[in-house]
Amino acid sequence: MNCFDCDATGRNTPAIAVCATCGAGACTDHAETSPQLLRHPNGLGTTTLPNAARRIQCVTCAGAGRTA
């Protein structure tokens, strides 16, 4: 699989990850990693696990998720 953003500019770069939001392939230049808290239902509430998971997104989806 090749990077979607690089392909749009005519480059042929292998993808190192798949965006968790849109599913596009992303190379090292077009991938962003952020922590994601995992929560599980527990009785009448929710338990948040102590360690965050890794969430990888393309730069387009990561930018769309940021607040101004």
Strand content range: 35-45%
- What structural class should be given to the helix and strand makeup? alpha+beta
Number of strands: 6
Which value, in Å, is the CA radius of gyration? Answer: 15 Å
- The arrangement of helices and strands along the chain is HEEEEEEH
**Count of structural domains:** 1
The proportion of residues forming helix, as a percent range, comes to: 10-25%
Overall morphology = elongated
Mean pLDDT: 89
Report the span from N to C terminus. Answer: 32 Å
Strand line-up across the major sheet: 1-2
Protein name: DUF2180 family protein
In short:
The chain has 68 residues and is of the alpha+beta class.
Structure write-up:
- The chain has 68 residues and is an alpha+beta fold.
- The chain has one domain.
- The chain has two helices and six strands.
- InterPro entries: UCP037465_Znf.
- This is DUF2180 family protein.
Considering the chains and any ligands shown, give keywords for the structure:
about 70 residues; alpha+beta; two-stranded antiparallel ribbon; 2 helices; 6 strands; UCP037465_Znf; DUF2180 family protein
